[in-house]
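Consider the tokenized backbone below.
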């Protein structure tokens, strides 16, 4: 499929790894591939206790006295797909296609995040023509679900003090700082009882969704927020009981669909309320999320609703939880400082389950928000658990690596490279904490709509970023 696209070596490896299932916690096959790749080429290779793979290639002739460079990306990808796609992404690779100058996948996420880092790293390691100092190439696991690989990285194999993380999605931009944060889960046991009410089923679909960090400020709807809004509108007009609902399935993705069943005193009035609110929502999001679809119908059901007491508890928790952007940055224009995303929220059987991800450029603000959410949950009888905290990566104004890369970019493309901090989490925060004196930057080609089935990789951007990366290796 990609054999005739330049740079051929990069796209050859991107296609090879696309055949390998590599969702988070399912990295055994891609790890075995990387280890075999290194063994076949006689390269020094290590697997640490966290499951990361470190491949080392010594300097080419004339570069023995230059400082080593660390290249880094993560093995895992977010596995999501359209509702009509039957593919088992735990066992099957993805199906690639080329559309209008982009590589994309048919009905699934592409894995450009972070498959392009693997492809760049493998193409460099495989070449005997590329000039470079000693390379220490780190491929981490479970980045998408809490940066477990970076958290547990064994740095004893690492000698370099300059790190190029290839996990950014915009060409011409060097990322020099990122948000930290943590995950929070909320659980509430609920009871059910007989109730002679009508049952109404509703669904929310067609939302863009997107990355819960980089896309959180784009004005897109969250199906979690829409469902809460619908519940509140109904509850204000009539007695309502929850039966079941489910919104989202990935903690780091803005939820883009929801299904729900409720029991209400008057189904006709309930349906009219939802239809009127649907028109209001569509008008509100017509510029940023124009394909929102909300369907509602009355149907018979054998499922008992929650008790009135537990419906009130669940309603209070849902309505009280913050969602989306909490605070914008004062240091960087148009940058988000602090946010929260409820990626998973459902009532099934006898429990409410919520899974949220807090991000902030300031560690103190992240902890403050996590604790605030925890108090809301506990104050309404729920259990809250905070885990997988990860540090923010603070901007280093004195970065020599950043300065040098900006100069090379200017020489190569005759334009300035943009410097930014991002609201997404990057593994650089862990590396800077673990390796004293580490100078780090993050870069990458243009990848659009990551974590969605619309994810696509700009072919020409991959080529330009490849040229830039090789020049950095040669001249840094």
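A designed sequence for it:
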């Amino acid at each position: 499929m990609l054999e005739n696209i330049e740079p051929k070596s990069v796209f050859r490896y991107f296609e090879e790894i696309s055949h390998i299932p590599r969702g988070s916690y399912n990295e055994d096959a891609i790890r075995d591939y990387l280890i075999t790749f290194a063994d076949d080429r006689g390269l020094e290779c290590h697997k640490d206790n966290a499951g990361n793979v470190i491949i080392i290639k010594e300097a080419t002739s004339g570069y023995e006295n230059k400082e080593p460079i660390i290249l880094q990306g993560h093995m895992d990808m977010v596995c999501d797909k359209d509702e009509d796609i039957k593919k088992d992404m735990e066992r099957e690779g993805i199906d690639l296609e080329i559309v209008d100058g982009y590589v994309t996948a048919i009905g699934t996420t592409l894995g450009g995040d972070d498959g392009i880092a693997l492809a760049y790293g493998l193409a460099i390691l495989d070449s005997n023509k590329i000039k470079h100092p000693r390379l220490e190439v780190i491929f981490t696991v479970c980045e998408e679900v809490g940066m477990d690989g970076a958290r547990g990285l064994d740095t004893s194999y690492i000698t370099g003090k300059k790190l190029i993380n290839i996990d950014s999605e915009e060409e011409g931009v060097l990322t020099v700082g990122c948000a930290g944060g943590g995950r929070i889960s909320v659980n509430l046991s609920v009871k059910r009882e007989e109730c002679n009410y009508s049952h109404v089923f509703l669904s929310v679909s067609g939302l863009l969704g997107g990355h819960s960090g980089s896309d959180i400020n784009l004005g897109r709807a969250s199906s979690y927020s829409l469902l809460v809004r619908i519940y509140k509108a109904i509850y204000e007009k009539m007695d309502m009981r929850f039966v079941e609902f489910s919104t989202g399935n990935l903690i780091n993705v803005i939820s883009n669909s929801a299904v729900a069943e409720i029991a209400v005193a008057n189904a006709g009035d309930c349906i009219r309320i939802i239809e009127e609110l649907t028109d209001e929502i569509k008008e509100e999001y017509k510029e940023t999320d124009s394909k929102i679809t909300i369907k509602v119908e009355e149907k018979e059901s054998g499922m008992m609703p929650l008790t009135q007491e537990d419906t009130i508890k669940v309603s209070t928790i849902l309505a009280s939880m913050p969602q989306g952007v909490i605070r914008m940055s004062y240091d960087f224009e148009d940058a988000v400082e602090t946010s929260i995303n409820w990626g998973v929220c459902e009532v099934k059987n006898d429990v409410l389950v919520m899974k949220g991800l807090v991000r902030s450029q300031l560690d103190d603000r992240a902890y403050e928000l996590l604790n605030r959410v925890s108090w809301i949950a506990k104050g309404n009888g729920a259990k809250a658990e905070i885990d997988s905290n990860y540090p923010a990566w603070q901007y280093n104004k004195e970065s020599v690596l950043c300065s040098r890369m900006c100069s090379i970019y200017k020489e190569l493309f005759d334009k300035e490279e943009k410097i930014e901090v991002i609201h997404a989490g990057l593994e650089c925060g862990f590396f800077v904490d673990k390796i004293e004196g580490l100078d780090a930057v993050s870069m990458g080609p243009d990848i659009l709509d990551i974590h969605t089935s619309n994810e696509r990789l700009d072919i020409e951007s991959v080529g330009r970023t490849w040229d830039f990366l090789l020049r950095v290796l040669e001249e840094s």
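The CA atoms of residues 224 and 465 lie 37 Å apart.
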